[in-house]
Amino acid sequence: xxxxxxxxxxxxxxxxxxxxxxxxxxxxxxxxxxxxxxxxxxxxxxxxxxxxxxxxxxxxxxxxxxxxxxxxxxxxxxxxxxxxxxxxxxxxxxxxxxxxxxxxxxxxxxxxxxxxxxxxxxxxxxxxxxxxxxxxxxxxxxxxxxxxxxx
Length: 151
Ligand code: RB5
What we know:
By secondary structure, this protein is an alpha/beta fold. The chain has helices at residues 12-24, 43-55, 70-77, 90-98, 114-126, 133-145; strands at 2-7, 28-33, 61-66, 84-86, 104-108.
């Protein structure tokens, strides 16, 4: 599976760590955003690049990282059809897949230790969408973006 990663400067170190972890697990990775921890980079631009990779079906999953994960998740969720879930533990990450079919996971590099962040990534990627009533909820959300779809 190809995974799109994006971060601002605050998330750069964690993005590099996660990229290595994913490559070691056999995933292919695309990286967007900051090129160092010291050169400021917009979390909005980094998030939107990952959201675009999902919208265009270039990738199936994205992971976005900023200082708190808040700004970058808000930016991603402005884009049509994107469900980006900010998670602080493995349970949330698992539910983000099982119930919310989130295509993008958001993490806060200034919030999480590195080993917890890696565990959250693994829980997220292992989670499978359950469909059924959860699909109905997603359809309700999609209806807010596009009222011509069924709610
Ligand atoms: C950057 O200083 C910081 O504002 C950003 O990484 C993020 O936390 C925003 O939500």
